[in-house]
Amino acid sequence: MRVLVVEDEQLLADAVATGLRREAMAVDVVYDGGAALERVGVNDYDVVVLDRDLPVVHGDDVCRRIVELGMPTRVLMLTASGDVSDRVEGLELGADDYLPKPFAFSELTARVRALGRRTTVPLPPVLERSGIKLDPNRREVFRDGKEIQLAPKEFAVLEVLMRSEGAVVSAEQLLEKAWDENTDPFTNVVRVTVMTLRRKLGEPPVIVTVPGSGYRI
């Protein structure tokens, strides 16, 4: 899942980003509304975690722009105000969910995951294919009943492949969904991660390389 965190309190923004990355999400961070508009114009995000009171361009205007562009991106709006009228106003702007500060990180993560599921074709909460069971919420993977421990990026790559339901996923698409914008697009990180993932999943191999196209399960 690709997430953009937009928050002018840099310590909070960086802490949220770090936490979401530990949950196997690819996260970009910006600290004002102008930078947010630049990012959503370039990258495809599943979810934007958007502070309402932003410098340069207000969070309300960023939300309006995302809605106007007709993007499938979901918006989780944050605010220091817990007033009900503020929540209603935020939702009326086009936000998909609203979370007042301070918040529990576990709740933020759950809401981001829930919104991320709404950007794609509805799938069961536990993904199953070729003897693999993947639970995105519990961050658990099993093959033929045996639990497999995966690093966050390995988990993210496997989740993208599982969600594709047998379709071929290119290396570029994996890079976009599982890594943030600071990753060198010419790196071999996708190939190395897939190799490690194959080894951990064991025999017989379930990840197939489609020459010149990408990977599928």
TrEMBL record:
A GO CC term attached to the entry: protein-DNA complex
Signal sequence annotation: none
Domain of life: Bacteria
Domain OmpR/PhoB-type: 124-217
Ranges of the DNA-binding region feature: 124-217
Task performed by this protein: Member of the two-component regulatory system CutS/CutR, involved in the regulation of copper metabolism. CutR suppresses a defective melC1 gene, encoding a putative copper-transfer gene, probably by altering copper metabolism.
Gene3D superfamilies linked to this entry: 3.40.50.2300, 6.10.250.690, Winged helix-like DNA-binding domain superfamily/Winged helix DNA-binding domain
GO BP field: regulation of DNA-templated transcription
Keyword set, alphabetical order: DNA-binding, Phosphoprotein, Transcription, Transcription regulation, Two-component regulatory system
PROSITE patterns: OMPR_PHOB (PS51755), RESPONSE_REGULATORY (PS50110)
Pfam families named in the record: Response_reg, Trans_reg_C
GO MF annotation terms: phosphorelay response regulator activity; transcription cis-regulatory region binding
InterPro entries: CheY-like_superfamily, OmpR/PhoB-type_DNA-bd, Sig_transdc_resp-reg_receiver, WalR-like, WH-like_DNA-bd_sf
Protein name: Transcriptional regulatory protein CutR
Positions carrying 4-aspartylphosphate: D51
Domain Response regulatory: 2-116
